[in-house]
Design a protein that fits this description.
homodimer; alpha+beta; globular
């Protein structure tokens, strides 16, 4: 398994799992009806860099890194990770998160922040906690989960 | 004193205090060298609505309102407020914040979130607290204050 910077052509392989995750509406705060063009803008173009995790030419996951706040906040980055359903349970989120922290440091960031982790996404909360992220905020009822209704969203943070 | 929706022409009067506040770098996470065109984009164009507080044709302050997170987070709005230095201490921030909460409700939002309040901005923290906002997060050393160095940034939140 190899992680490398994404090219626009990679989006053909990213879109199926991006679409599946976003249409489910259970984890990410994207409109559930996000279309491909909007997805390219937010996943590939707006971020500072986007990476893919690839095995034998097949893309299994992807993440982006961007500056979370400009100006006086620009030493803190933000990342988002998606794993194809075919590749779940293989530790890919851990591998990508660790890779992203190395990339973040090489870009000069001093901390990483996740702005909006649905508290119902217990697997993600457990994983980020294990990887050294602290829950520094809890936004009451800030995420509308499609079946559970309003749930809290967490702000998670790691100073390098 | 009258609060109304802003027009693009109002930016001639907004820019002097926007520029003064942003160039100081003590409160807002904008690049301190933000130019007028970027300021128009982020203050007037990106938000859902922008308002000005006006007296005798003179604009004393301005605020924007926008959706803080799309999709499952789109019931929570975000606002930013700026007051001209000539109009400080007159309660304008309070007036604008109360106005913005009414606007937020009329637009269907159920909560308001401030993502990044510099903890060193004690006046703002005190004011938002007085107006019913709860400090739901503390981001360690997330804001680089020009004279105090790294200070925490707060996440403040009010469910209507």
């Amino acid at each position: 398994m190899h992680i490398r910077e994404a090219t626009l052509a990679d989006f053909d392989q990213i879109w199926p799992f991006f679409h599946e995750i976003v249409a489910a509406g259970e984890t990410y705060a994207y409109p559930r009806d996000t279309i491909r063009e909007q997805a390219i803008k937010s996943w590939m173009e707006t971020p500072r860099k986007t990476f893919v995790a690839e095995e034998n030419g097949q893309i299994l996951g992807s993440y982006y890194i961007k500056t979370n706040q400009p100006g006086g906040g620009d030493h803190v980055c933000n990342c988002g990770y998606m794993v194809s359903s075919a590749a779940r349970g293989l530790g890919l989120a851990t591998t990508m998160c660790e890779h992203s922290q190395q990339v973040a440091k090489s870009l000069g960031y001093q901390a990483m922040q996740f702005n909006f982790v649905a508290s119902s996404n217990e697997g993600a909360v457990r994983l980020w906690t294990k990887l050294g992220f602290e829950t520094v905020g809890r936004l009451p009822k800030a995420f509308l989960h499609p079946s559970r209704g309003y749930v809290d969203a967490l702000v998670m943070y790691k100073w390098f």
